[in-house]
From TrEMBL:
Protein family: Belongs to the UPF0162 family.
Gene3D superfamilies: Tetratricopeptide repeat domain
Keywords on record: TPR repeat
Protein name (Swiss-Prot/TrEMBL): Protein SirB1 N-terminal domain-containing protein
Taxonomic lineage: Bacteria, Bacillati, Cyanobacteriota, Cyanophyceae, Nostocales
PANTHER family with a match to the protein in the record: F-BOX ONLY PROTEIN 21, SI:DKEY-261L7.2
């Protein structure tokens, strides 16, 4: 398979042990497919600059809450970063270069900016893939505080997370331990790409939807639902041989899937 240079860089970055993946680089390679002339080093240098500016204003007592307070003041008061609440589904909210340039983003991309700068000041943080809303927390044992980068760095505790879930789903939600578990770097990137996938699907941009699915499958090869979706996209784009291959693979993996009858009917229409 022949990849674009951006896809090749992405592939190389993610094909190493998870702990060695550079999230910012991988995210910039995602953006580079949209912006072929993007220079990742320019934005990596921007993180270094931000970290240097934060470092100058850090308190002498480096307690987590004090560090978060300093980061919040820098990001939201000084630089003006904010959640894009007027156009949440603008694709630019999912491209790291746009988030840095426009200082607007969605929870996961603002979290990535926060993580990258925190890492550079020796305050490691991890992503928390809570359903419906992405958070971060200090990667320090027994420190159970969470930061909502989308809402001006609001500090939350487990009870706050439960209340936020109840608000989002408009019903009481039992807070399961996995809801507040750290995500791997591959999971982090897959969630970014899943956001793009559904944004482009909503816009009926099938080529870009397919590009998002292809990269999710580079991160997690063989995921049944993504293989199915790739097959359906191939079908809609008129690439019938690839559609048949993916849809047959999907049925072989999940023969009793709820949509198996629909997929079999589609394959019959394709002469298979």
């Amino acid at each position: 398979m022949k990849f674009s240079s951006a896809r090749q860089y992405f592939y190389q970055e993610i094909h190493q042990p998870d702990e060695h993946i550079d999230l910012a680089k991988a995210a910039l390679y995602i953006a580079q497919e949209e912006y072929p002339y993007l220079e990742p080093e320019e934005y990596l240098n921007a993180f270094d600059t931000m970290a240097g500016e934060v470092q100058e204003r850090l308190p002498s007592s480096r307690y987590p809450l004090r560090l978060i307070q300093s980061l919040n003041q820098y990001f939201y008061d000084d630089l003006g970063f904010a959640g894009n609440k007027t156009d949440y589904y603008d694709p630019r909210n999912s491209f790291l270069n746009d988030v840095i340039d426009r200082r607007l983003g969605i929870p996961i991309t603002l979290a990535l900016v926060y993580l990258e700068v925190a890492h550079r000041i020796d305050f490691p943080m991890v992503g928390i893939g809570m359903p419906g809303h992405f958070l971060i927390r200090p990667d320090i044992p027994d420190v159970e505080i969470f930061v909502d980068a989308y809402n001006h760095g609001e500090v939350m505790f487990a009870q706050d997370c439960q209340e936020r879930l109840a608000q989002m789903f408009q019903q009481p939600v039992s807070l399961q331990p996995e809801y507040l578990a750290p995500v791997s770097k591959r999971q982090f990137l897959a969630r970014m790409l899943t956001n793009l996938k559904f944004i482009y699907l909503k816009q009926q941009d099938l080529e870009k939807t397919l590009a998002a699915v292809e990269r999710i499958l580079l991160l997690f090869p063989g995921v049944s639902l993504e293989v199915r979706d790739r097959g359906l996209l191939y079908y809609q784009l008129g690439n019938y041989p690839q559609a048949i291959e993916d849809l047959q693979t999907y049925l072989a993996k999940v023969p009793d899937a709820e949509d198996a009858m629909v997929i079999r009917r589609l394959l019959a229409d394709l002469g298979k």
